C-alpha cells in the first residue's frame, strides 16, 4: 500500500454535526446528575453542594472556552492529546492521551456498575454482573458499527434522560408554594463544615460536568469542525448548568441531607420519596438511559484517544487500523473493552470514580498551560480560528487555580489514590522515555501540523 493510501485508510468518516457533538458531551456527563454529585452534600453540606456546583461550573466554562478555541483549529481525533502533540511534544502528549483513556474507561465502568446497583435495588436476588457485562458488550458493538448511528442514538436517549429531570421537578409543584412537596428548609443542612467543606466538595462537584471536554475527541469526524465543535460544546455546557442546578434543587427538597449524601442514585431516590408510581418509573428509565448514554460516549472518546496515539506511533500501530466498511477505530474499541470490564468486575465504584477524576484534573492542568503556549505560538490573526475564547488569559488562570484547589480537596480525602495515580503516570512516562520513544516517528508526528499551520512565532 502506498503512503498516501495508508494515510487515507487511517482517516475517520466526517459525518457529525452540532447535534452529535451535543449528544457526545452531554451524554457522557448527564449520568453525573443521576449519581455521584450528591457526595458533595456529605463533604460540604447542602449549601456547600450548590456552591461547589457553581464553582466547578466556572472551572468547566473556562475549560470549554479554551478547549473549543484550540480544538476548532485541530480537526483530528484525540482532542486534548492532539493539542498536546502540536504544542508540548511526544512525552506530554503520551501522558495526556493515557489520562484521557483512563478517564473515560473508568467512567464507563462506573456507569455499568450503577446500572447493576439500580437493578439490585429492585430485587436483591438480581445478579448485577451479567447486566454490567451485557451493557458494555452492547454499547461496544454499537461503537464498532459506526459513529453516526451511535451518536444519533445517544442524542435521543440523552434528551429523554434530561427531560425526566424536569418531569420530577414539575411533579413537586414547586411553582405553587402552598401545594409543593419540596421542603428545602427542613431537609437541607447548610454549611456544617464551613468553607473547608466546600473545598472538599469540589472533587464531587466535578461529577456534574466530567467529560464535556471529550467533545474535542470527535473533531476529525465533524463535517465542519469550526462550526460543529463550538456550537455543540457550548450549548451542551448551558444544558449541564441548568440540569445541575435543577437536580440539586429537587433532590435537596425531597431527600434529607444525611440520606442524600450517601445515596448511590439520588434522583431515583428523590422520585421514590414522591410516592408517585408514574414519576418513579420515569426516573428509573431516565437513570438507566443516562448511564447508557454516558458509557456509550466514553467508549467513543477512549477509543479515539487510543487510536490517535497509535496512529502517531506513541503506542504500537496495530491499534490505528480503521474498519474498511464502518470507518471506525475498531481495534482500539475492542482492545479497551476487557479493561473496562475488569474495572467493572471489581465493584469498587468509589475507587474507579476517583481515578477517573484524577486523570481528568491532570489533563485540565495541561490545558491551562497549553492555552498560554497556543496564544504565544499562534497570536491572533496568524491562523484562522473557528472560535475565539474571550478575556484571555483570565479563563486559563481560573482553570489552573480551580483545578489545583480541587486536587487539594481531593488529596485530603483520597491521598493514597492521588499518590498512587501520580506514581502510575510517572512509571508510564519512564516506560515511554526508556523503551517506546525510540519507535516514535518524530518527523511524521508533527508533519500534519507543519502542512496546515504557519511556522510558530519564536520557533
Automatic annotation (TrEMBL):
A Pfam short name: AA_permease
Transmembrane segments: 21-40, 46-66, 86-106, 151-172, 192-212, 233-255, 275-299, 329-346, 352-372, 393-412, 418-434
Topology versus the membrane: Multi-pass membrane protein
Domain Amino acid permease/ SLC12A: 27-408
Broad class of where this protein is predominantly found: membrane
Record-level GO cellular component terms: membrane
Record keywords: Membrane, Transmembrane, Transmembrane helix
Any Gene Ontology biological process: transmembrane transport
Source species, domain of life: Bacteria
InterPro entries: AA-permease/SLC12A_dom, APC_superfamily
Subcellular location: Membrane
PANTHER family found in the cross-reference section: AMINO ACID TRANSPORTER-RELATED, MEMBRANE PROTEIN
Entry protein name: Amino acid transporter
Annotated organism of origin: Desulfosporosinus orientis (strain ATCC 19365 / DSM 765 / NCIMB 8382 / VKM B-1628 / Singapore I) (Desulfotomaculum orientis)
Amino acid at each position: 500500500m502506498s503512503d498516501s493510501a495508508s494515510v487515507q485508510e487511517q482517516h475517520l468518516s466526517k459525518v457529525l454535526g452540532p447535534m452529535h457533538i451535543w449528544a457526545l458531551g452531554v451524554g457522557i456527563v448527564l449520568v453525573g446528575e443521576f449519581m455521584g454529585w450528591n457526595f458533595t452534600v456529605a463533604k460540604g453540606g447542602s449549601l456547600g453542594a450548590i456552591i461547589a456546583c457553581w464553582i466547578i461550573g466556572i472551572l468547566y466554562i473556562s475549560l470549554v472556552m479554551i478547549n473549543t478555541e484550540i480544538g476548532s483549529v485541530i480537526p483530528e481525533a484525540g482532542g486534548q492529546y492532539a493539542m498536546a502533540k502540536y504544542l508540548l511534544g511526544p512525552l506530554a502528549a503520551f501522558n495526556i492521551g493515557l489520562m484521557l483513556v483512563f478517564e473515560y474507561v473508568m467512567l464507563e465502568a462506573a456507569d455499568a456498575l450503577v446500572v447493576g446497583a439500580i437493578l439490585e435495588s429492585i430485587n436483591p436476588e438480581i445478579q448485577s454482573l451479567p447486566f454490567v457485562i451485557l451493557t458494555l458488550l452492547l454499547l461496544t458493538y454499537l461503537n464498532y458499527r459506526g459513529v453516526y448511528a451511535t451518536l444519533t442514538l445517544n442524542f435521543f436517549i440523552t434528551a429523554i434522560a434530561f427531560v425526566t429531570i424536569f418531569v420530577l421537578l414539575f411533579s413537586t409543584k414547586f411553582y405553587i408554594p402552598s401545594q409543593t412537596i419540596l421542603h428545602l428548609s427542613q431537609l437541607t443542612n447548610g454549611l456544617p463544615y464551613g468553607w473547608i467543606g466546600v473545598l472538599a466538595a469540589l472533587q464531587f462537584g466535578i461529577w456534574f460536568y466530567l467529560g464535556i471536554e471529550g467533545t474535542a475527541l470527535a473533531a476529525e469526524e465533524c463535517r465542519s469542525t469550526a462550526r460543529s465543535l463550538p456550537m455543540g460544546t457550548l450549548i451542551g455546557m448551558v444544558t449541564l448548568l441548568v440540569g445541575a442546578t435543577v437536580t440539586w434543587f429537587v433532590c435537596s427538597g425531597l431527600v434529607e441531607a444525611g440520606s442524600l449524601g450517601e445515596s448511590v442514585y439520588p434522583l431515583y431516590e428523590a422520585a421514590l420519596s414522591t410516592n408517585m408510581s408514574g414519576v418513579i418509573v420515569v426516573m428509573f428509565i431516565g437513570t438507566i438511559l443516562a448511564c447508557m448514554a454516558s458509557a456509550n460516549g466514553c467508549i467513543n472518546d477512549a477509543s479515539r484517544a487510543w487510536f490517535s496515539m497509535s496512529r502517531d506511533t506513541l503506542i504500537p500501530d496495530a491499534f490505528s487500523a480503521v474498519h474498511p466498511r464502518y470507518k471506525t477505530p475498531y481495534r482500539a474499541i475492542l482492545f479497551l473493552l476487557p479493561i473496562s470490564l475488569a474495572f467493572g468486575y471489581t465493584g469498587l465504584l468509589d475507587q474507579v470514580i476517583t481515578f477517573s477524576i484524577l486523570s481528568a484534573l491532570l489533563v485540565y492542568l495541561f490545558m491551562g498551560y497549553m492555552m498560554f503556549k497556543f496564544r504565544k505560538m499562534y497570536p491572533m490573526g496568524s491562523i484562522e480560528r473557528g472560535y475565539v475564547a474571550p478575556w484571555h488569559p483570565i479563563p486559563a488562570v481560573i482553570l489552573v487555580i480551580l483545578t489545583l484547589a480541587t486536587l487539594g480537596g481531593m488529596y485530603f480525602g483520597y491521598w493514597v489514590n492521588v499518590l498512587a495515580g501520580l506514581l502510575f503516570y510517572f512509571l508510564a512516562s519512564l516506560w515511554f522515555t526508556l523503551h517506546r520513544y525510540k519507535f516514535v516517528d518524530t518527523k511524521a508526528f508533527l508533519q500534519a501540523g507543519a502542512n496546515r499551520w504557519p511556522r510558530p512565532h519564536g520557533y
